[in-house]
Write a structure and sequence with these properties.
Elements lengths: L13 E15 L2 E17 L13 E17 L4 E15 L8 E4 L3 E3 L8 E17 L2 E17 L6 E5 L1 H5 L11 E4 L13
Parallel strand pairs: 5-9
Antiparallel strand pairs: 1-2, 2-3, 3-4, 4-7, 5-6, 7-8, 9-10
């Protein structure tokens, strides 16, 4: 129909994930150390890019998520009334969200969505380094806290914003029912030809 590829209605949605959590604590005298490593990876295939139940297979995307973090905490009891808490945190996360097709985006309002959806990000990567320290002073019923929290973040976002075309129909205009004499798009926006697509996404 309309020169588009045939929809493969037999594709399966796949959700695979791996998680690892390592933690250690060390206490000696007035010093407490704790460390944690978190790893989370998800490999999700054929996920709808639009409202559940309306996206056809050409609308699907593959979600690949990898998230790692290392946290080190240090707590020192300097005096009976003075405490220092420090935190060191490193995070690296990647989110890849490639579309399974580069077909024109076609939406039949409240009914079906097919082709490449232009809304979601295609790729996101973040590296974050955090250093924080807090000094607490207790006197009687009162506590005063002073601290600093520094975050250094580097990220990369790819949002193409381009489709071969974006087309909007109602059920009547798509099927050529009255008042339409033939299939008629209510909205048509031409964008980028498929041979100009930039790929692959970074890993």
């Amino acid at each position: 129909v309309l020169g588009l590829s045939r929809e493969d209605l037999g594709v399966l949605r796949q959700n695979d994930s791996d998680q690892v959590l390592l933690r250690g604590d060390y206490i000696r005298g007035r010093l407490t150390l704790n460390g944690r490593y978190d790893f989370n990876e998800q490999r999700n295939k054929n996920q709808p890019a639009t409202i559940e139940g309306q996206g056809l297979p050409s609308n699907f995307r593959h979600n690949e998520i990898r998230d790692q973090s290392v946290v080190l905490g240090v707590t020192s009891l300097l005096t009976a009334s003075l405490t220092n808490e420090s935190l060191f945190n490193f995070v690296h996360r990647t989110f890849a969200n490639p579309s399974v097709s580069f077909e024109p985006g076609i939406q039949i309002i409240n009914t079906a969505d097919m082709g490449r959806h232009a809304g979601p990000f295609d790729f996101y990567r973040e590296r974050r380094f955090q250093v924080a320290s807090t000094v607490s002073y207790a006197r009687g019923r009162h506590i005063a806290k002073f601290g600093v929290d520094i975050n250094h973040v580097r990220n990369r976002v790819i949002f193409s914003g381009f489709n071969p075309a974006i087309t909007l129909f109602t059920v009547e205009s798509f099927l050529g029912l009255p008042p339409f004499s033939r299939p008629t798009a209510l909205l048509f926006i031409a964008a980028i030809p498929s041979n100009q697509r930039v790929d692959p996404l970074p890993r």
